[in-house]
Every structure is written in structure tokens, then in C-alpha cells.
Amino acid sequence: MLKKRVIPCLDVKDGSVVKGVQFENLKYLGDPAEAAERYMNGGADELVFLDISASEEGRRTRKEWVHAVADKLFVPFTVGGGIGSPEEARDIVALGADKISINTKAISDPDLIKRCALLLGSQAVVLAIDAKATKDGKWEVYAKGGTVPTGKDAVEWARQGCSLGAGEILLTSIDRDGTDLGYDLNLIEAIRQAVDVPIIASGGAGKLHHFAEAIRAGADAVLAASVFHFGIYSISQVKEAIEKEGFPVRKVW
């Protein structure tokens, strides 16, 4: 069995790491480069860096932020936010990122996934899906940092994105984001049944048992922000909890 990954997420706005609840009421938490280095030294398997206001503000990912973080890291590093073309994706990788994450621009232009995959390889293209539960037991995809409903069914969008070349899914439950109530296990299970690429579960981690639950539901990696940013749990504690449930992880030395 492949080792399960633990991934801190750095949501960045106005040059600072931020965290909110259900994508709202953001708190500013400090320098992203310093946080990235701290998490790497603490045993993070990867990091995800999201320029969360880029799409809403209609601009590209701020390259100076990417460069500052990449300069500190020796673990895989995914960057998302405002990437609208294969050339922009290539520029982000050239700054030191290992993978790029696309969301809003891919919703309006699905062929962007294919073009990025052809240029960089599927392994470097992550399709980020921000999903919110609907009254009929399904999930709707939201764009622009979880602010704009699209009418797209999350499961169908995941399936389409992978058929176009996405090599990984970053799956965030808007309903659970920042709530500490645990991941949306039904959402993870539904996406797992639809695609065979790795899934990164995001949104809702608040207790140690939540991480293994997400993996049991079908996630290959678990992403969290609040529990790490506010010092509730260390990456080492999360990995120990996952391993105790029978899932292999990379040791923290």
C-alpha cells in the first residue's frame, strides 16, 4: 500500500497565510515562507499553496510569493490560484513548484486541463474542486474561492477533469471547511468511486480520528490548515494517529 500523505495548506491573501470558516471571516496568520519551512521541518509530505483571491480579483498568482516559499522547501509543493494558461502553469513550475492546481479557470475552460497536462504531464496537474452539498444529496461545484455556484455536479466534474488529464483531485468540502467537524466522508466516497487518480481530502479536520476516517473513505492524502496553523496538532501526531489505524505513512524523524 502506498504511504498516505499529510499536507498542510497555506491559503494566502495579501501576502499572509489566512484561515476562515466555510471560506469566510478570514484571520491573518503570518508569513507563508516561514510557515512552509516550519511545516517541512515538522514532517509534511507536501505543501499546498493557494493564492485564494487571485481568481476573484482577476489576476495571476503572485510569483514573488511562490518564489519565496519554494526557496525554503525540499518537499513537493503545489501552487494554485489564478492560473489561466499552460504558459502560466509552466512559469509557476519554473519558480520551483512541483504541481499546479487549477479550479475556476478550468470550470470555464475545461480544455485548460488537457493543455496543461500535455505541457507538464498529468502528474503535475491537480484539479481543485470546491464542493457544497445540495438538497438532493449531491454536491455542487463552486468557483472563485468558493463564492460562485456553477451548477456543475462535483462527481461528474471530477470524472470529466480526470478524462481530460488531471492527475490528482484536491477535494474541498465548503460545508466542512474550518468547522472541525471532520471531512465530508460521503463526498470523498462518491469521488473515489468515480475516479482512479489520487484524492487529497480537504475541509473539516478537527480531531485526530478525522484523518484516518478520510483515508478509509478513499482519500490518498489528507490536507488541513486550522489544526496546524493554531498548533492544535503537530504533523507527527496526525501521522501517528493514521498509522495506528493501519495506514502506512512516512516517518517523522
Number of distinct helices:
11
Q: Order of strands side by side in the largest beta sheet?
A: 1-4-5-6-7-10-11-12
Largest sheet: 8 strands, parallel, barrel
Low-pLDDT ranges: none
Describe it for me?
This protein has an eight-stranded parallel β-barrel with strand order 1-4-5-6-7-10-11-12, surrounded by seven helices. The two termini are 21 Å apart. The radius of gyration is 16 Å and the shape is globular. It has helices spanning 32-41, 54-57, 63-70, 86-94, 104-108, 111-120, 154-164, 185-194, 208-217, 226-229, 235-244; strands at residues 5-13, 16-21, 24-28, 47-51, 77-80, 99-102, 125-133, 139-143, 148-153, 168-173, 199-202, 221-224. Helix 4 crosses helix 6. The chain has one domain (5-245): TIM Barrel. The chain is built from eleven helices and twelve strands. It is of the alpha/beta class and 253 residues long. The mean pLDDT is 89. Belongs to the HisA/HisF family. Its EC number is 4.3.2.10. One of its GO terms (biological process) is L-histidine biosynthetic process. Its main location: cytoplasm. Pathway: Amino-acid biosynthesis; L-histidine biosynthesis; L-histidine from 5-phospho-alpha-D-ribose 1-diphosphate: step 5/9.
Summarize the structure.
Its main location: cytoplasm. 36% of the residues lie in helices and 26% in strands.
